[in-house]
Amino acid sequence: MTDRGAIALPRRPRVPIPAGACDAHAHVFGDPAVFPLVSPVAYPVPDAPAELHYAVARRLGLDRGVLVQPAVYGEDHRAMIDAMALFPGRLRGVGLGGAETGDDALDRLHAAGVRALRFVEMRVPGTGRRFPGSVPVDALATLHPKLADRGWHAEIWAPPEACAAIARNHASDAVPLVFDHLAGAGVDDDPNDDAYRRLRATLERGRIWIKLSICRIGPRRADYPRARRFHTALAAANPERLVWGSDFPFLRKGAEAPDGGWLLDRCREWLGTDALFHRILVTNPAKLYSFEGDRHE
Fold first, then answer.
1. Nearby residues of 161 by Cβ (< 8 Å), 6 or more positions away
2. DSSP E strand boundaries for the chain
3. Which among 7, 13, 90, 238 has most CB atoms closer than 10 A?
4. pLDDT of 29-47, one tens digit each?
5. The predicted structure's pLDDT at residue 17
6. CB-based contacts of 89: which residues, under 8 Å, 6+ apart?
7. Is the sign of the CA dihedral 42, 43, 44, 49 positive or negative?
8. How many C-beta neighbours within 10 Å does residue 224 have?
């Protein structure tokens, strides 16, 4: 199941974007004749190659980016690695690897620019099934020492209750935990719910990171402004442990996909100050993804 329709470039943000700004959550999908899918698909696969990612970043005024390995590629990282090689120095990667993934494979990923592995506990909407090709959090215990040896973090996409439990069981200085998509917040959730209060407390102590990527809050564009209450609560808890991500090319969103310029405008509006906007778009991702040098290289 593919969607080879052209993806329009976003409008330019109305707010000034600081130099060194980073989109910490995006995906690339290369030519299927060159980079074939290895897992069954749970969504239409878009035509979103590295060149389009770069064009979108230029339009938005972003200098850096983090590519997250799509589950449909499994542990075949060639499309992502090819994209990072095309634009050396400006991209990092979040890969996929299970409990059996060996050191040689992880070392090759590190050399290419990967700095994390992703674990998923979300389910395909309306089915209760795991996303094909994704790696469950159960694998983290086995992989933990390998991540620690390389200075990597673990990226996790899960509902808030699962995020709170994962933070309780796995948060450590050796392997930071980075939770996707507002730590799984949905349109019917509340930042004062018990699980989310526990997450905010852990964030406040600097024990976890969270991505301010808002388009998974609900299925419709009309839902996106309801992410503001989570955005605000997280920024109040600990702005030093937040990064911003667009989630381009907005898988499964179709006509309800947001515009990247609108997303950046809302981020600046909701944060309230240029200083905080700079910290979350520039300072924090530079630290988390080692854009300013890497002691492990």
1. 195
2. 2-3, 22-26, 45-46, 64-68, 91-95, 114-120, 153-157, 177-179, 208-212, 242-244
3. 13
4. 999 999 999 988 878 899 9
5. 98
6. none
7. negative
8. 19
- For the four alpha carbons of 94, 76, 151 and 170, in that order, the dihedral sign comes to positive
**Which CATH number belongs to the domain containing residue 119 in this structure?**
3.20.20.140
Query: Do 232 and 27 contact (CB within 8 A), yes or no?
Result: no
Q: Is residue 145 part of a domain?
A: yes
91-95 β-sheet, strand order:
22-26, 64-68, 91-95, 114-120, 153-157, 177-179, 208-212, 242-244
Burial (CB < 10 A; 0-12, 13-18, 19+), residue 164, is buried
Structure tokens at 216: 């998974």
* Domain tally, the chain: 1
Cα gap 221→255, rounded to integer Å: 9
Q: Does residue 273 fall inside a structural domain?
A: yes
pLDDT at 296 over 60: no
Residue type for position 149: D
Instruction: Give the CA angle between residues 182, 243, 10 to the nearest 5°.
Output: 85
pLDDT in tens, 87-113: 999 999 999 999 999 999 999 999 999
Whole-model pTM? 0.95
Cβ neighbours of 14 (radius 10 Å):
11
Is residue 7, in this structure, part of any structural domain at all?
no
Q: Which domain holds residue 70?
A: 21-288
**Is residue 138 assigned to a domain?**
yes
Nearest by Cα to 2 from 259, 258, 249, 256: 249
Helix (H, G, I), strand (E, B) or coil at 211: strand
Query: Residue 2: is its pLDDT beyond 60?
Result: no
Model confidence pLDDT, tens digit, residues 237-283 = 999 999 999 999 999 999 999 999 999 999 999 999 999 999 999 99
For the record, the structure tokens of 241 come out as 């442990």
- Given a cut of 60, whether residue 1 has pLDDT beyond it is no
